């Protein structure tokens, strides 16, 4: 089975197209759950609830996760609570955004 770190690594390939930074370094990924059958469930958010690309970003994340060996399915659920804030940025995210 893949590890949480492996899932987060492939999710770094998924960028928020409006910001140009990956979803992990933006701090958009809230939870990663992996079950014994190879089903990965991810809860994530976006920087703004009204983002028109939420379906596109969620599908890109699912496709990235499904490239991992032993992953049968990936499901990304967009959540809006707690709301995203810049405090969730990683150090790399801060650097990329010039903070």
Write structural notes for this entry:
With 99 residues, the chain is of the alpha+beta class. It has a single domain (4-81), classed as GMP Synthetase, Chain A, domain 3 (2-Layer Sandwich), CATH 3.30.300. The protein has three helices and five strands, in the order αββββαβα. The strands form two sheets. The chain has a three-stranded mixed β-sheet, with helices on one face. Strands 1-2 form a two-stranded antiparallel ribbon. A hairpin with a 4-residue loop joins strand 1 (15-16) and strand 2. The longest helix has 12 residues, at 54-65. The model has no long low-confidence stretch (mean pLDDT 95).
Keywords:
two-stranded antiparallel sheet; single chain; alpha+beta; 5 strands; GMP Synthetase, Chain A, domain 3; 99 residues
Q: What is the residue-averaged pLDDT? A: 95
Give the CATH topology: GMP Synthetase, Chain A, domain 3
Gross CATH architecture: 2-Layer Sandwich
Q: In terms of structural class, how would the helical and strand content be classed?
A: alpha+beta
Gross morphology: globular
Strand portion: 15-25%
Main sheet: strand order: 3-4-5
Separate helix tally: 3
- Count of individual beta strands: 5
Can you tell me the residue ranges where pLDDT is under 50 for at least 5 consecutive residues?
Answer: none
Radius of gyration: 13 Å
The main sheet comes to:
3 strands, mixed
Order of helices and strands: HEEEEHEH
Give the CATH class. Alpha Beta
Helix share, percent: 25-40%
The quaternary state of the protein chains shown equals single chain
Q: Note the gap between the termini.
A: 36 Å
Number of domains: 1
What would CATH call the homologous superfamily?
A: Fe-S cluster assembly (FSCA)
């Amino acid at each position: 089975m893949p590890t949480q770190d492996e899932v987060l690594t492939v999710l770094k390939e998924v960028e928020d197209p409006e910001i140009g930074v990956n979803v992990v370094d933006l701090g958009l990924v809230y939870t990663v759950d992996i079950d014994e059958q190879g089903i990965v469930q991810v809860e994530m958010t976006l920087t703004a609830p009204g983002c028109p690309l939420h379906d596109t970003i969620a599908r890109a994340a699912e496709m990235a996760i499904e490239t991992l060996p032993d992953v049968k399915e990936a499901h990304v659920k967009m959540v809006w609570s707690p709301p995203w804030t810049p405090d969730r940025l990683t150090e790399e995210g801060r650097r990329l955004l010039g903070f």
